Model the fold of this input.
Amino acid sequence: MRYAQPVRALIYARVSSDPTGRGRSVADQIVDCRDICTRNGWTIVDELQDNDIGASRWSGKDRPEYRRLQRLLTDADVLVTWEASRANRDLTAYLELRELCAEHSVLWSYSGRTYDLTRGDDRFTTGLDALLSEKEAETMRERVLRGLKSRAAAGEPHGRVPYGYMPAFNEHGQRVRVPHPDEAQVLRDAAKMVRAGQTLRSIAQQFNREGRGYRGRDWTSVELRRKLLSPTYAGYRVHHGNQVQATWEPIFTADEHRAVTAILTDPDRLTQHGSAPNHLLTGIATCGVCGSPVGRRKNKPSGTSSYTCPAKFCVTRSKGIVDEVVEAVVIARLSRPDVAEALTAGDGSQRREALAEARVLKSRLTAYEQKAIDGDLEPDEYTRLRDGLRVKLADAEARADSFTGGSPLPGQVAGPDAPQLWEELSIESRREIVRALCRVMIDKAPRTDTGNPKYVRIEWKV
Done:
């Protein structure tokens, strides 16, 4: 053992989240460690602190100062911590620290005693303390998990207050969540606009223009979709796939949430990624030869645009001509009384409701399966519930397949006013209607007959 004069001491303090107040703050630990160094006449060469960071094997946070400690130990004579658990609550980490201290002949001082980790007795004692620290961490984790499971089963909130809510106190002085007047109204308006057929992109852009952003940031269609699909706003708490009635006031009714969820998750719904679309048929119309979705190409030097097959360049057709043909045919279709009656009567709601029911049934199946795995459900009872849900699921999926799907927009535009309403629509809404109603294929045409509408095929979905 080396004894440099003066003895160089390295202090390390750490605290994880401790709402019970049983632990010692980093500042208190530093004060105690300084007192130990003063009593022993040690010179403090550095003080390292990790705040709000656990040291167990379950902690996913990095400890930057602890990593520095491992490097600085080579220039110290003694490591000073308030207790063994401040350095680690994991046997693997303890073994690494023990070997590092022994290799560089660094003492370890904690809880009023100083240990020489090159000696067997001290290695045994510190190892036992490390084992107890790890056990305490495991016990605390199990206690926390039991508490979380209990709170989840009771539908009580956990974690940060989500957008749309704010903290408050009830008549018993207990902390609760209540709808935030402004934020909850944003979500209600967004849900109403989705049900009216507006795209998430257009809704987000409107909110941002109106200064109704997402807590200081602009809305994106992705974030807006995530919020509208969350069961939190329908008054449900979800924990490990299990959904229970929550204790907080919902922002949406169950029917409103089911309707919005069905629209946003409908497989026939057009989802546009990247920049906002500027052309009616890009990514929608397909090449009549190879089936690839067409893209738009600007022609030089004329400045006109064409729809072109990007895969093999099978077809190239004037964008203006194709758009004119498709719009005329779609408007005529929407203006037909029989089509208008069918669209406005159904509006896709029956299919969306059937799809929503199927998703709920699948979620219940998953929840029962997990309960059976955890031993909370007897095998016979699980089999009975599973078989019953499978029958209901098959019926819901069959009903979904039997109804027309897609956007609610066609039903809102259909009728004698279709030409006028079409002119008022945004390009995104027009694209959604085309995608919902039909498939557009651009066939190869003779150079002398490229303007002929017969080379633009339309197959109706509805």
User: Anything to note?
Assistant: Residues 124 and 193 are 68 Å apart (CA to CA). The first strand starts at residue 8 and ends at 15.
